[in-house]
Specification:
two-stranded parallel ribbon; 18 helices; 15 strands; Rossmann fold
Length: 581
């Protein structure tokens, strides 16, 4: 008996040593641009599955010096064998509560890198579907390396690419002029996709089966990319998670105003005759860290509660001839039909309004407006702070609209603070993310015989949140809860088997969509069937501990924001329009 125990112990020790030795070994591939050396890594939660990771692959000439505030330039090749065993730095950005646990803590202006995850057991004659991930972070934060795509690549048998793109003032400075149109971060994304189109075959990827997917600002990005007919052929399917191109926060004038403010604060003022070239040259000479510090100080000094993006995409006359809501309509047939030709998966969490909680957690606002966000968000916070800010920024301070929104999201029982707190956050989440998602799904699916539409809602609360902890009254799936189901829940200890099963099911749905344009796999009966969404039937899947099919996601929110308010505004305009008399 003693000998058997000793033998088992020895086998166990050897097994651990074998796992440690073989969990990470080097692999080399030949590509059109030169040889590249990556690492073979053990997939989290397994003992036999491996993925080849190729990190810090440059896809553009470093956007520094005179190339700052310009479109990225493609990188032709590299000399010798490229070392792709370590992650590159994040793009210049401020501090965020969301993207802290990353392998490389450094930040740099030279940051245009991508990372590729390839199942190690892919055969030499295979071409796997490709999924290109665009990270979120309000166009101010984030990086590709935050998302370990090993499990998704292995379970889905797909190749996953993650990328960096320029953020904040470096990615979205604009002077509303051809000399500085803006949208450099979006041009980075497009160049990365062009790189994938040309080079992914060297990693056993199929360049004719590319799905772009992203969450939050990343979801908005992939949704915006799907409105550009010039992108035809670069990708074939789109997954926009908790963010779409028709969100009201996109394409406002804030980027232009912030660009001038950062410049003037940094000592680069526009001259009276608007010498924009001199302004840009001045801005290019300032160290990147100094520009970022100036931007952070501007944010920190803000005393007014606003619901606007900082820097972000703009209507530039090149990528976007008009607002996305117009491009989605048949007023722009090329943009409209390109969007509808792509298979679309889109959805949201049950508590997208958690983003408002994060903003209201600022001690400065809590002190100034006399509330405690942990205790709850009362009707006074809703009607005295949140709604006035929303109406000021998006409805020209229309007091009647303010009253409508306040009434819609008020709980009339003053004792139920928890319910009122959730409804207060709903006003934010419904307006910016949830209702626009349903609107864009309706536009895509209406009488569309060209492509598929799939809609989901994540209701199950992730045991491991990304970002700040939520208050006890927020009993919903928060903004970003979908991320760890797709990337990395397997890294954490003591995760319930039901969460791991949901994670695996979601990865399978996402990979099926990338492979077939359909979230279902006819040969795999383990996951519930996910029906197609149509504007007439509005079937969607509710991703909860028990997955189910339901009808009309966020029906009340969509009805209010896309029917009630527009109808009111139309009647109000008519009542004041002399031509109607």
């Amino acid at each position: 008996m003693e000998d058997q125990i000793t033998l088992l112990l020895v086998i166990g020790i050897l097994s651990v040593l074998h796992e440690q030795i073989h969990a990470q070994t080097e692999v080399t591939r030949s590509t059109r641009l030169g040889d590249i050396r990556g690492i073979k890594t053990l997939v989290p939660g397994t003992k036999i599955k491996y993925v080849d990771q190729f990190r810090k692959i440059p896809y553009a000439v470093p956007p520094v010096g005179l190339l700052r505030f310009q479109k990225p330039r493609p990188l032709d090749n590299w000399e010798g064998t490229l070392d792709a065993t370590e992650f590159g730095p994040s793009c210049i950005q401020g501090q965020s509560g969301y993207f802290t646990d990353v392998p490389n803590k450094s930040k740099a202006e030279d940051c245009l890198f991508l990372n590729i995850y390839v199942p190690s057991d892919v055969t030499s004659d295979e071409q796997l579907p490709v999924m290109v991930w665009i990270h979120g972070g309000a166009f101010l934060y984030g990086q590709g390396m935050f998302y370990n795509a090993s499990s998704l690549a292995s379970i889905g048998n797909v190749i996953v690419v993650t990328m960096n793109y320029r953020l904040g003032i470096f990615g979205f400075l604009t002077l509303n002029d051809p000399i500085a149109r803006g949208n450099y971060g979006l041009f980075d994304q497009i160049l990365a996709l062009q790189w994938v189109k040309k080079n992914i075959v060297s990693f056993n990827g199929n360049p004719d089966s590319v799905t772009i997917f992203g969450e939050s600002a990343g979801g908005m990005s992939v949704s915006l990319l799907s409105l550009m007919p010039s992108n035809r052929g670069l990708f074939h399917r789109v997954i926009s998670q908790s963010g779409t191109s028709n969100s009201p926060c996109l394409m406002v004038e804030n980027s232009y105003l912030l660009s001038k403010l950062v410049g003037s604060t940094a000592g680069c003022k526009l001259s009276p005759n608007e010498d924009k070239e001199s302004f840009l040259n001045c801005m290019r000479e300032i160290p990147a860290e100094i520009l970022q510090e100036v931007l952070e100080k501007i944010y920190d000094s803000a005393t007014e509660f606003r619901l606007l993006l900082g820097f972000g995409p703009v209507v530039d006359g090149e990528l976007f001839p008009d607002q996305p809501t117009r491009l989605l309509s048949d007023a722009y047939p090329n943009h409209h039909y390109f969007f509808r030709s792509l298979d679309l998966m889109t959805g949201f969490t049950s508590g997208e309004g958690s983003l408002l909680y994060d903003q209201l957690s600022n001690p400065k606002f809590q002190s100034h407006f006399n509330y405690n966000v942990s205790a709850g968000l009362s009707k006074d916070v809703l009607c005295g702070l949140v709604v006035p800010a929303l109406v000021r920024d998006y409805y020209d301070n229309n007091q009647d609209i303010e009253n409508l929104i306040c009434d819609e999201y008020s709980i009339h029982s003053s004792e139920d603070l928890s319910s009122q707190s959730r409804r207060t956050t709903d006003a934010h989440g419904d307006f910016f993310l949830t209702a626009p998602t349903i609107d864009i799904a309706n536009i895509h699916s209406k009488e569309n015989g060209l492509s598929y539409t799939f809609v989901y809602m994540l209701s199950h609360i992730n045991p491991v949140h990304i970002g700040p902890p939520q208050p006890s009254w927020f009993t919903r799936s928060v903004h970003g809860d979908d991320l760890l189901y797709l990337f990395g829940l397997q890294h954490h200890n003591n995760i319930d088997i039901k969460d791991l099963e949901l994670s695996r099911t979601m990865m399978s749905y996402w990979a099926n969509f990338a492979r077939f344009g359909n979230a279902n796999n006819a040969e795999d009966k383990s996951a519930p069937v996910w029906p197609q969404y149509t504007s007439d039937h509005q079937l969607f899947i509710d991703l909860d501990s028990k997955i189910s099919v339901k009808i009309s996601p966020a029906k009340q929110a969509y009805q209010f924001w896309y029917k009630t308010i527009p109808k009111y505004m139309k009647s109000e305009n008519h009542s004041h329009d002399p031509s109607e008399l």
